[in-house]
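User: I want to check something. If I give you two sequences, will you return the structure for each one separately, not as a complex?

Assistant: Yes, each is folded on its own. Here is the first sequence with its structure:
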Amino acid sequence: MPYPLRFAPIYFKKVWGGRRFSSIIGRAIPDGPIGESWEVSIHPHGHSIVANGVDAGVKLSEVIEVAPADILGKRVLAQSGSKFPLLVKYIDAEDALSVQVHPDDAYGAAHAGELGKTEMWYVLHAEPGSCLIAGLERGVTREQFQQALAGGGDPGALLHRIPVATGDSIFIPAGRIHAIMPGLTILEIQQNSDTTYRLYDWGRLGLDGQPRELHVEQALAVSDWTDYAPNSSVDAPVAITGGTSTTLARCQYFVVEKLDLHGKYSSATDGETFIVVNCVNGGGLLTWAGGDEQVKLGDSLLLPAALGEYSLIPDGNASFVISYVP
């Protein structure tokens, strides 16, 4: 019988990483600056292992191989084959990430051996005064940007900054120049890709004491030079039984919704797509025909397409981000 799958987090040390996975979501994390926790992934750079139930210890891809339609859903299987199409992670930015950009599918397949990377960010926690970089200031040209980069120069004045607080979100399509800035802990939902082209890295050294590699030529080629001053607006909340639902992002690769709940919310997987559930505030109980699971802040669960009816019962007020394939 299908059941909600938990996975062992996959942690990555980053020069810009911090320790907030411990303080914000109560994780026991390895020593050092931990920048990423991959929660649901079949990418070769980090492959999720099931941590609960009868499939504990088994790779997600192997679980999918046994019953691909039951896990992924008929629509996802038709679109992506038996390859899990998303990558869900948490990011902790103690320092700024590089100014970077991701390719689209065509460029990624031709030059990187994998699809492109469109993503969205949900701000799980923001220190006061935090901001994101997304897109260009109005009127900036590729030529101006190249001139600013010449000789290792700082292009910061040409980049669009957006003040953000806990609970904000923004969509980052392939081609959008961007950077996560200090003081932010973020839930990222993205295509199953790990291709990043760095334009600028603030003049710092990596964990090995050497300058980190830049990819200026590729980044300039894939950047959208008409992407001026994007905003972080989302749809208005819609009333649902138990609370409200807000669509945070919608594209060909994923739909992301936030459920703000004060009472029981019931729904069902439709057999067409899986659903990933991330608890982003409070906690509660996830129930389905075969049992129940306690869910707390920071937890990530994969609901198989064949799971059927399920409910989220919050402890008081709680918020959950759900993502699926449209």
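And separately, the second sequence with its own structure:
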Amino acid sequence: MSELKVYFADLAAYNSGHLHGVWVDACDGEESVREQIDNMIKASPFPGAEEYEVHDQVGFDSIVLKNRAISDICELAEFINEHEELALGLLDNFHNCVEFAKNALRDNYQGCYGSFEDYAKHVCRECYDIPDVLENYIDYKALAHDLELTTYTIETYDGVHVFIDH
């Protein structure tokens, strides 16, 4: 996975027209991220600095990190790091709620297929013992169309990830 980095800015410096902040690797964990932010604030060119804010990010696609707790940012980074494009697709599908995305992956995930029609073939073969002579007579495209009513998909470079929709 690409880097998952976040730029935290020192607000005392920023509000005074100076750039002072730190890029952190969000996969380093909450404790490390907090320590790096604390060190940045301590090194502020403005005495009494204590507030910070997310001003930039890399690797999180369209997920807005501003106003999120550090623990949430690190949890998002861990999930994205583990599941890459699939995680980003799930987060987009669930409005960036990592809890819903994790639940969908745990409870509703059916697997990754070359196409949705391949998923329909898989379902049919799991449910029925189809003799080879009948294989060419099954309309998997129509079955895939029907299955689309009870599923949702996330497409990645790996293929089509299928989830049962309930």
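Because they were folded independently, the notes below concern the second chain alone. The chain has six helices and six strands. The mean pLDDT is 94.
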